[in-house]
Structure formats: C-alpha cells, structure tokens
Amino acid sequence: MNQEIPWIGKPFALFYGFCYYPRGGFCDFENTFDSVESAVKSASDRDDPLEWWHVIDLRTLKAVAGNEEGLFGVAENMKDIKQ
Question: How many Å separate Cα 80 from the centre of its chain?
C-alpha cells in the first residue's frame, strides 16, 4: 500500500494557504516530509509567497513550525523550535 501512497510514513505535514482564499481543513494540505526542515524549505521556496503555513508533527498532532499568520494560537507548541 505504501507504494500507492508515497507520503505514508513521513511524519511532518505541511499545510498552507492565502488569507483571502482559504480552502479549509485538509484541503490546505500540501504534502508530508521526512523532516521539519524539509517542510519549512518547501513552504519558503515557493514562487508565490505564502500568507500562512504550518508544519504538523503527525506523531504528536502538534504544530512544530509556521509563520505567525499560520499559527493561530498554537505558538506554545513551538517553544523549542527554531525557525
């Protein structure tokens, strides 16, 4: 089954969007990554700068990285994360 769904098993999920056109919920999901750094790089390296983004650790279901616009009150989860 993992061959059919290549992102299964990667523990960090990137969600992002634009404040003027949020899709909402899982529709804001972009992809999963092996590391926080990979997910942050994906969010940062876009040609169209994102208004908000956050990375979720799928093992703990907590936000571990994101820009201020994308955190919406979960900054306490990021105390030990350096952006």
Answer: 17
Residue 61 lies in a domain: yes
Dihedral pair phi/psi, residue 3, rounded to 5°: -70, -30
The pLDDT tens digits along the chain (83 residues) read: 444 555 568 999 999 887 766 567 778 889 999 999 999 999 989 888 888 889 999 988 888 998 865 555 445 555 444 44
The range of the structural domain enclosing residue 39 comes to 12-78
Q: Is the pTM of this model over 0.85?
A: no
Q: Does residue 1 lie in a domain region?
A: no
Alpha-carbon 12 to chain mean position = 7
